[in-house]
């Protein structure tokens, strides 16, 4: 008969959700609301070109929006401890609501670039705070399942967002006023939800271990001294860069090979459907695996799937390759996203999470650009080069993920094998 600890570690979706605090449920609902209303980046280029802006100007605006988002998660790691989850989320979503609506009324292109950058940055400030709170309020043996639920909200919202945005666009008679005000309203709703349901401040673990509050510079500096975790961050960067090639290199290659576009759109839709349908149920099994095994397996399968596109490209290759890296996502993504909250000392949790989200965002931004350049040089032969990025991710993850970085049945200990050697905060460089 399974012990109580084993039952807790293998708890399914319904039991885990039922036993979570109200604040965790609010984050699940909030992240869904946020993503289902997150269609600014989808329609930004179309909005600008409708205003007479060139394709280059529209692409630049989309680029600065992405840069702002990458910077936002890094700053959000600081705010997670300074302001707490509630205040950081209210600031992030409330400001996003105002700035998004203002895009409709800006008088010049430079002012629009400034505001778009600000929206990209501010809209991401809440993410480290939310992830930190999830990790702090969740027992060690439930972390992977909780982050699988968090991703379920993200994916479900992201799937619905284009449909809702298109509906608002048509309802507004092919104008963008209703669409942008709709996104602003959704952001405001999340701010209200956070104000009502989230705790005013995150717990301060440093008090329990006898240390004072961690200054932002000291927090990130301490994280950077964790060399094994740095390897994990590098692995995350390479994996994200490879994963996003399905948005950049794959459609370019399909077009160059003369394959019908329906096979590309069908493969992307298949990925979304399988992730939404199977990631949560399968996490009941994968949450019991050691994190090192799960992460290395997922990064390796991602490389194999992407590498499959290097075969003579046709419908079967597209579907098979997509299925393989989708399996990698389904079994690995919850652990990949949960590990940063378990990898370091509790008082540095927001900085570990912020660093992870920064590197993941950086890889997601840089990967498609580099992939496009490589495709222009190598054509269809680019896929082995891309897959080599996954090989690097596997190597770095193999050395970077701690052996005890998985859910140990019945264990409530931190996942760090040996506590990090940290000098007093006062001695850290500014």
Give a description of the structure.
- By secondary structure, this protein is mainly α.
- It folds into 2 domains: 20-201, Growth Hormone, Chain: A (Up-down Bundle), CATH 1.20.1250; 215-413, Up-down Bundle (Growth Hormone, Chain: A).
- Helices cover 74% and strands 0% of the residues.
- It has 19 helices and no strands.
- Helix 3 (22-36) runs antiparallel to helix 10 (177-197), helix 6 packs antiparallel against helix 10 (177-197) and helix 9 (143-171) packs antiparallel against helix 10 (177-197).
- The longest helix is centred in the C-terminal third of the chain and has 30 residues, at 349-378.
- The termini are far apart.
- Mean pLDDT is 85; it is low at 1-8, 205-212 and 405-430.
């Amino acid at each position: 008969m399974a012990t109580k600890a084993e039952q807790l570690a293998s708890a399914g979706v319904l039991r885990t959700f039922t036993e979570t605090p109200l604040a965790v449920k609010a984050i699940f609902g909030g992240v869904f609301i946020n993503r289902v209303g997150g269609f600014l980046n989808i329609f930004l280029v179309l909005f600008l070109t409708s205003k007479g802006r060139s394709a280059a100007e529209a692409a630049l605006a989309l680029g600065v929006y992405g840069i702002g988002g990458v910077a936002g998660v890094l700053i959000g790691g600081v705010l997670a401890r300074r302001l707490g989850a509630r205040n950081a989320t209210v600031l992030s979503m409330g400001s996003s609501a105002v700035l998004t609506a203002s895009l409709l009324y800006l008088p010049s292109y430079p002012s629009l670039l400034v505001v778009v950058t600000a929206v990209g940055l501010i809209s991401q400030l809440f993410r480290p705070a939310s992830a930190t709170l999830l990790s702090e309020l969740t027992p060690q043996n439930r972390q992977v399942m909780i982050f699988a639920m968090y991703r379920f909200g993200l994916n479900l919202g992201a799937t619905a967002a284009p449909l809702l945005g298109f509906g608002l666009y048509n309802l507004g008679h092919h104008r963008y006023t209703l669409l942008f005000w709709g996104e602003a309203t959704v952001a405001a709703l999340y701010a209200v939800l956070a104000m009502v349901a989230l705790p005013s401040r995150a717990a301060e673990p440093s008090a329990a271990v006898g240390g004072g509050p961690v200054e932002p510079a000291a927090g990130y500096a301490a994280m950077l001294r964790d060399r094994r975790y740095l390897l994990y961050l590098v692995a995350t960067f390479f994996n994200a860069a490879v994963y996003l090639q399905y948005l950049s290199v794959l459609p370019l290659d399909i077009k160059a090979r003369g394959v019908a576009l329906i096979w590309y759109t069908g493969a992307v839709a298949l990925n979304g459907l399988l992730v939404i349908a199977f990631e949560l149920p399968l996490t009941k099994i994968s949450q019991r695996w050691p994190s090192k095994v799960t992460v290395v397996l997922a990064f390796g399968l991602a490389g194999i799937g992407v590498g499959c596109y290097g075969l003579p490209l046709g419908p079967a290759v597209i579907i098979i390759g997509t299925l393989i890296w989708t399996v990698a996502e389904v079994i690995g993504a919850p652990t990949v996203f949960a590990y940063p909250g378990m990898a370091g000392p509790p008082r540095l949790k927001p900085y570990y999470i912020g660093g992870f989200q920064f590197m993941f965002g950086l890889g997601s931004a840089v990967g498609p650009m580099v992939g496009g350049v490589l495709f222009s040089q190598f054509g269809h032969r680019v896929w082995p080069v891309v897959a080599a990025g996954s090989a690097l991710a596997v190597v770095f993850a193999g050395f970077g993920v701690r052996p005890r970085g998985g859910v140990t049945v019945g264990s409530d200990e931190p996942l760090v094998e040996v506590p990090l050697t940290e000098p007093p905060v006062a001695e850290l460089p500014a």
